[in-house]
Structures are given as structure tokens and as C-alpha cells.
Amino acid sequence: VSSVQRGLAASTRDENSSLIAQLPNNQNSSVQQYNLQVQQQLDRFTSVSPMLETRAITS
Amino acid sequence: MTWFNANALFSARATDLCKSSDHDEGVAGGTGHYNGLQISVNRTLGNNLLVTGAYTYSHTLDNSNGAFNIGTNGAGGRFFITPAGPSFLLNYGNADQDQRQAFVASGVYNLPFGNGQKLGANVSRLMDEVLGGWQTNAIVTLDGGTPFDINTSGVNSAGIDNRADALTFQHVAKGFVGGTTIANRLTYFSGTFAPPPTISVNGNLVYTRAGNVDRNQFFGPVTPRWTSASSRISPSRSG
After folding, report:
1. For residue A27, which residues of chain B lie inside 8 Å, CB to CB?
2. pTM of the prediction?
3. How do beta strands A30-37 and A46-58 pair?
4. FRET label pair with B139: which of A14, A20, A36, B79, CA 20 to 30 Å apart?
5. Is the CB of A21 less than 8 angstroms away from the CB of B36?
6. Residues of B in contact with A46 (CB under 8 A)
7. Nearest CB to A54; choose among B34, B45, B68
8. What is the DSSP annotation of B17-82?
């Protein structure tokens, strides 16, 4: 943004326009997810299944 | 990707480089964390009914509403920017998706018609094709409240917004709000809020700190919501 702006005379500076910028050294996105799940058959007719889940995201 | 209003920084630093109101800058600096415990129970009742219950308790945190969402809508919105620049640490808190509790129950019932069932066990093959093999099911979902922010509006032309300071807060009995443009919406708490203090930097007002309200500190009412309660009949077997 700054380099573009510096090239403009004061009278032609950008006003009320739309501009999108992204840093060139942006990091890559990543996801880490861990699941731990067990299942117990309580009787012939019933089962229970607890699960722990943790997830970390960078974006 | 976390988007914020880059112009907010220019104004905060009191430069005259840019006076546009729509300069969005994206930074890949967002982080999010989810931790959850889920428990599900399955049980068959008799020969024809299977019921399932599943409960989830979880906590989702991130440092911007862009950690999970990509887009420029609301850039700078709900993301406190210090005079020195954007601070992800100050914006770490409950995520927009932080719905702490959820419960789902479902049941599948095979209707007792046709061969091998209590009713119509001796009907002809043609009648069995018509009457047999049908099932009905129902799903009930009960969700906890979803979080929301309480923000101030911007104090300068760039619209740097901020979380508010909470002065008073209390839960009240749920009741309908009337006489406004959003009449008949339920209210369940009352409070007074104020913008954080500001200082003037080269003629531009900027907030000196984030508000004392944490990100997404407030949650919607934990009213059980029957988001789905349906029953339908469909063929459950062929041939």
C-alpha cells in the first residue's frame, strides 16, 4: 500500500476506492487434529462411545 | 487469513497517505483451538427400535473472526487495533463458533408390517412389497447459546472499532422487547456499556486500550431449540 501511495502526487491520492493487500511473507495455513475415541459394549443392546478431540488451526 | 482495515492504521498514525474507507489488509496470523468431549450412546429397544443420544461439550477459541472465515466483510470489525498495529493477542478469546453444549437424540423405528413382523406376517409377496420394509425416524437437537460481541463504533474516519467496557450487567427474566424496529425479540440481560478511553494523536482520536469485555464474552440464551423434529416414512429394504 505504501509503495503505491508514495508514487502519487498529493492531488491524485487515492480516495474512496477499494484496495486489498496481502503480505508477501504470509505463513502457510495448517491444521492439527487429534481424536481419541473408545467404545464399550455395555450389554447386548447398548453401547457407549466417548471421544476427546483437540484441534489447532493457523490461518 | 485475518482481514482488517489497513486504513485504520494510517489514520491511527495520523498520516495523510490514504483517506479511503475501504483498504483491507490480510495477515496469515490467525490461530484457533478447539477442545471437545463427545459421548454417544446407542441402544436397541426390542426388534424394531434403535435410539441414539449424543452430547458434546466443547470450547472453541481463536484470535480473530477470520481464523475460520475468509473474506473481507467486516474487515477491522470486532478486531481491536492498537495505535502500534493489529494485536492478535488482545483479540484471543471465545470464537464465533463457540457453542459450548449440543445434544442430539434420534430414533429409527421399523414399522411392524410385513413378513417377519407382528402385523401382516402372512400377506402375499405383492402385499409385503407394499406394506413391509418401512421405517420412521425422528431427530431432536438441543443447542446451547451462541456467543456474541458488544462493540463500540469507530472514533475516527477509518472506523477503528473496539470492544466495549462493561459498567453493569445482570441477567433478567426472559421477555419480549417491544416498540422498536426489532420488536418482539427476546431479551434476557440488561447492562450498561461505554467506550474505552481515547487519546488524540495528531488530531485523530484512537482508543488507548481494548475494552474490558472479552471477545465473544456473552452468550445467547440456553433455550432448548428443537432445530429438527421430523418423522418420515421411507422404504428400508428392496426385493
Report:
1. 28-29
2. 0.74
3. antiparallel
4. A36
5. no
6. 41-44
7. B34
8. S---SEEEEEES--EEEEEEEEEEEEEEETTTEEEEEEEEEEEEEESSTTTT--S-TTTTTT--EE
